[in-house]
Design brief:
binds alpha-D-glucopyranose; seven-stranded parallel beta sheet; five-stranded antiparallel beta sheet; 443 residues; alpha/beta
Length: 443
């Protein structure tokens, strides 16, 4: 059994740590301008101008079953969809706003279709819900708000009342957690309790232009969520520690720990294919298939989950580049998922040889050596002699021969290997797998 114990939290994270791999989906009006999901504030777009996207929101090629199929084929086990992003537009039929997908030419409750399709495909269901809202009339004009540089911004801010908005959020979260059956993850985004230097903070701004748990009334919001969906997993971004630590667009170099107690925590890295979250037509920084696969391996090798994002096009489908990226995962996972599901960081006694990453099954029986840099013919691994029952490639279960205990034959001659070393003999030509994996069955 794995010796790693993670900090206890209110939600049920056991399935989550087993499943390891999920799909993030950022979809909203920003898919139409197709140049970043923050476009409304990045370009200071007026309500009136932004409305053209609302009037033309019609993802005619949207098919939730198709999204679910691609997620599943990529090897993903759960998904998190933006029910509302910072722009304030809701993909569900909320009775508390008119700013929703059912009032666009599309006319449908997209969240409902997502839930039905993903659940039918056997995937767990997550809702992203933006705490920030650049459309709601009670949301104060703060350092991130699209209206912050308007000449009459201070005037516009008058009468905006966070308490009204906080109640709106509770109402919507109640809808989301009542009307769609069992929800597994609630992903709030995000808090900014303090302002940094050079930010757009003005003296008239409420709360110094910032927002955190007091303004969101996070305690009430979370209590409500827990009451409606016991066991649900909630992230930490409402400025109150919950179940999930969520490093964004970084590859941690060690298992994340609790800042006070030092305990290991449950973490999930969220990453993008190309940099932005919403569909960004002209972004050319798409990660290679190999990089994508290695990001998943790196994450699990440090005890974490990966939530990989797709930004569907305005017509509601995943564009070719996204499809190819997902297919790369699918191809690799088809043969190698045993080193991901139910796996975690390898026990400390195992040290990864240069160019490799290790994972180990929770039951301790399999050690997986991921050959991210394919070695020439031999791979030496210290501290492993005497512990192996059998070794094979994971993708085809072909046997891998090895010698143990500092061999003295021609291949390792002169290298003075220590007695604890195992030398695996690998084919000279790398198998046609982005990152091949050695599956070591341990005694
Ligand atoms: C950030 C961004 C946002 C994105 C999120 C995903 O907080 O504001 O656009 O949804 O990260 O983690």
């Amino acid at each position: 059994m794995s010796s790693y114990v993670t900090r206890k939290t209110p939600g049920n994270t056991e399935w989550f740590r087993h499943d390891r791999f999920g799909m993030f989906i950022h979809f909203g009006l920003y898919a139409l301008p197709a140049r970043h999901e923050w476009i409304k504030t990045n370009e200071f777009i007026s309500e009136e101008k932004y409305n053209v996207y609302f009037e033309n929101f019609h993802p005619d090629l949207f098919d939730a079953n198709e999204w679910a199929r691609q997620a599943k084929e990529a090897g993903m086990k759960y998904a998190v969809l933006t029910t509302k992003h910072h722009e304030g537009f809701c993909l569900f039929d909320s009775q508390y706003t008119d700013y929703k997908s059912t009032n666009t030419p599309f006319g449908r409750d997209l969240v409902r279709e997502y839930v039905d399709a993903f659940r039918a495909a056997g995937l767990k269901i997550g809702f992203y819900y933006s705490l920030i809202d650049w459309h709601h009339p009670s949301f104060p004009i703060d350092k991130l708000h699209p209206r912050r540089r308007d000449a009459n911004a201070a005037e516009l801010d008058k009468g905006r009342d966070m308490r009204v908005y906080a109640e709106y959020m509770r109402n919507q979260v109640r809808e989301l957690l009542t009307n769609y059956g069992k929800i597994d993850i609630l992903w709030f985004d995000f808090s900014y309790p303090t302002a940094g230097a050079n930010e757009d903070v003005q003296p008239w701004m409420q709360y110094g232009g910032c927002k955190g748990k007091e303004q969101w009334e996070s305690e009430k919001l979370i209590a409500l969520a827990r009451e409606l969906q016991p066991g649900i997993i909630i992230d930490n971004r409402a400025d109150i520690e919950q179940d999930l630590w969520t490093p964004e667009q970084v590859q941690p170099t060690r298992w994340l720990t609790h800042e006070k107690t030092g305990e290991l925590v449950t973490w999930e890295a969220c990453q993008t294919f190309s940099g932005s979250w919403g569909y960004y037509r002209d972004e050319m920084t798409w990660k290679s298939p190999k990089m994508l696969v290695d990001m998943l391996i790196n994450t699990v090798s440090l005890g974490g989950n990966l939530l990989m994002n797709v930004g569907p096009t305005a017509r509601g489908y995943f564009d070719k580049r996204a499809q190819n990226a997902l297919a790369a995962y699918g191809e690799w996972m088809k043969y190698n998922s045993d080193s991901i599901y139910g796996c975690t960081m390898a026990e400390p006694e195992f040290r990864a040889p240069v160019g490799t990453r290790l994972t180990q099954s929770e039951d301790g029986k399999h050690l997986y050596i991921h050959l991210q840099v394919y070695p020439f013919a031999f791979l030496e691994m210290p501290n492993l002699a005497g512990k192996i029952k059998y070794a094979r490639f994971l993708h085809d279960h072909s046997e891998i021969l090895y010698t143990e205990g500092g061999t003295d034959n021609w291949c390792t001659e002169g290298q003075n290997l220590t007695k604890d070393v195992v030398v695996f003999r690998l084919p000279h030509v790398k198998p046609d797998i982005l990152t091949p994996v050695i599956d070591v069955l341990l005694k």
